[in-house]
Prior knowledge:
Distance between the termini: 25 Å
Strand content: 25-35%
Number of domains: 1
Mean pLDDT: 98
Radius of gyration: 17 Å
CATH topology: Creatine Amidinohydrolase
Shape: globular
Bound molecules: magnesium ion
Strand order of the largest sheet: 7-6-8-13-14
Largest sheet: 5 strands, antiparallel
Number of strands: 14
Structural class: alpha+beta
Low-confidence stretches: none
Oligomer: single chain
Amino acid sequence: MRRSPDEIAKMRKAGRVVAEMHERIRDAVRPGVTTLQLDAIGREVIERNGARSNFLNYHGFPAVICASPNSMIVHGIPNDDPLEDGDIISIDCGAIIQGYHGDAAHTWPVGTISPDAEKLLQVTEESLWAGIAQMRDGNRISDIGHAVQTVAEGAGYSVVREYVGHAIGTAMHEKPEVPNYGLPGRGPKLRVGNVFAVEPMVNMGGPETQVLPDGWGVVTRDGSLSAHFEHSIAITDDGPEVLTVP
Ligand code: MG
Ligand code: MG
């Protein structure tokens, strides 16, 4: 789907709200805070901006953020457990403005984290930006995932296969999928007006995943740490425009 400049303007507004949710949540992340408290911050930002949540009630999801600590990869339900010094916490959230969606994720350090964890966060974010840099008219969709995989595996990490990025627009999850792995030069050609949510999930250990008994939380099967970074990005004549930034 190729979105018009007017549609992308609406998605930019939604993206700004998502960015504000992340900024406010980042400022609140510290030892002792609960992910339910972080969810309340996200709700306040959504309401103040006249937006709606695309996470709340999605297939019955009970919150406006996903909060996934440590070895949890994605889809964590916020709860009453206080975060602890040395944890990492992945926050994924979105917003809808005038029918158009934004979606982004960041992994934050809680207090002081180990150098190993620090490196995982840095490399995962770097892999996202390497993927974004491939979002140019005429490239192919697999160029994005290939760039992500090259950075992540180059640092000795693995990339999750079962969960992938996606096109985004009037729904949060549109086709095509945007895998975080693969050979370059495959799949549909990228065109000006395409908008994708690119979202590497990078594990310190193996790539295998497991869904928790609550049916939502996804963890690494080997218990290793996992990080998740995501932006919603439009392809313009001048290259990629990240919509989920302040
Ligand atoms: Mg997301
Ligand atoms: Mg997404």
